[in-house]
Write a structure and sequence with these properties.
- By secondary structure, this protein is α/β, with parallel strands linked by helices.
- The protein contains 16 helices and eight strands.
- Strands 1-2-3-4-5-6-7-8 form an eight-stranded parallel β-sheet.
- The relative contact order is 0.14.
Length: 349
């Protein structure tokens, strides 16, 4: 049983979401429109019928099955206009749940099927985020993903492209894709280049592989943050290192259960990590594929893990602390959020 935080209080909390994949957050009605514009065939002709093809429902056997949902969407996200629209709508969806700051991810190599250059892909994506920021007042920044299964050469080119947009909407790089068989160390050269270009980076680890993957990301490559990190508890020494260095974990509760990063809610370590003093953040991962929102993720903290309102506010402030922003901008956001949370907590007493 939860502790009964009012649903409206959770909905109107100013939020931070550091881990959103833009291609996992396409609205069904938008996919229908994009497919029609581009002459592409979909398995259903209306939004309600299409949603089951885009969203994980109930039990998902593995991360591989989860990622299969992206195969339907990607062919429709191969034009600059499609990517700009989709990125804009991610910001719109975040605004509906009172997000004040979001970091949205794109794997630009996945959007070159029709010949777009890396700079064209990233440019369209950033243009959509910036249009959304202007219209909805949500500060939106981009993270450029390198894929584990791609060659070092391909990923070096992605980092160089990201560097050209650094400070112009792009704030960081990432490594994502299948963990099994693709340890982070394969891309040591890639992230050495990121460091030399002044690009901070987060790495997906501890989702479909164990603590060794997190170790490779932290000690092997020097990641600033860890995408997911659910399985950190498998190595107590590494957990202590992550705690001491205040390396943020980007937990995504709904998707972490769907992808079997954790076997069950009973085994999910969010409360354990919070109580141990890890710099814990909670995020959505994929709005459409996981059928989630930041309000839903925070409701799970309250209902399943007995997080109090002050503890939930602490998690959100952790998100502000972990953001890939310049220090002055970050401090300003932290102050604004802290003031808002103090007022909300006072009103909820």
């Amino acid at each position: 049983m939860g502790i009964g935080i009012d649903a409206e209080v959770l909905r109107r909390l100013p939020k931070v979401d550091l881990h959103i994949h833009f291609d996992g957050s396409v609205k069904p009605q938008t996919l229908l429109a994009l497919a029609e514009e581009q002459g592409l065939k979909l398995p259903a002709g209306d939004a309600d019928s299409l949603l089951p093809y885009m969203q994980v429902e109930g039990d998902c056997p593995s991360l591989a099955d989860y990622l299969d949902k992206f195969n339907l969407v990607l062919p429709c996200l191969q034009t600059a206009a499609a990517m700009e629209r989709t990125a804009f709508e991610v910001v719109e969806q975040a605004a509906q749940h009172h997000c004040k700051y979001i970091e949205v991810r794109i794997g630009p190599r996945l959007h070159q099927m029709k010949g777009l250059a890396l700079d064209e892909v990233i440019g369209a994506f950033i243009a959509g985020l910036q249009r959304g920021e202007t219209q909805f007042g949500v500060k939106a920044r981009g993270i450029v993903i390198c894929m584990r299964q791609h060659s070092v050469k391909d990923n070096l080119e992605v980092i160089e492209a990201a560097a050209r947009f650094l400070g112009q909407g792009v704030v960081a790089a990432d490594l994502a894709g299948p963990e099994a068989g693709y340890p982070p160390e394969l891309h040591r050269e890639v992230f050495a280049l990121a460091r030399s270009r002044g690009i901070p980076f987060t790495i997906h680890a501890g989702e479909a592989a164990g603590a060794g993957s997190i170790s490779g990301a932290v000690t092997g490559l020097g990641a600033s943050r860890i995408g997911h990190g659910v399985r950190l508890k498998e190595d107590k020494q590494l957990l202590e290192l992550v705690r001491k260095r205040r390396i943020p974990l980007e937990l995504c509760p709904v998707s972490n259960i769907q992808t079997k990063a954790s076997a069950s809610w009973e085994a999910y370590p969010v409360r354990e990590y919070f109580d141990q003093g890890l710099l814990l953040t909670v995020n959505t991962d994929n709005l459409t594929v996981s059928g989630t929102s930041m309000t839903k993720e925070l409701t799970i903290l309250a209902d399943k893990f007995q997080f109090t309102l002050p503890e939930i506010c602490r998690v959100l402030l952790n998100g502000a602390e972990a953001a890939f922003l310049e220090e002055q901008e970050k401090r300003q956001m932290q102050k604004e959020l802290a003031r808002a949370y103090a007022a909300i907590e006072a009103g909820a007493e």
